[in-house]
Please model this.
Amino acid sequence: MKAATPEMAQAAEQLLWQLYEQIQADTLVLRGAESDLLSAQTAQSMSQRGPGARVVEFAGVGHAPTLVSFDQIAAVLAFLCGA
Model:
């Protein structure tokens, strides 16, 4: 990571978006509102690009929701059951 240049990071990001835009399956993004890895802006872009992901954000949660609370489990079940 220390050897990465801004140009390398930009090229990697462009490649990831190219791959993301090829996804054709329904997609769910679970974001913790306190995440320092997945910004709200990136999650928003994920909802508008590629497969048009459904984004669910959980207040008071860090990067990766643990899927142990009812509201988190309910969001996944609703997605999987088509609600």
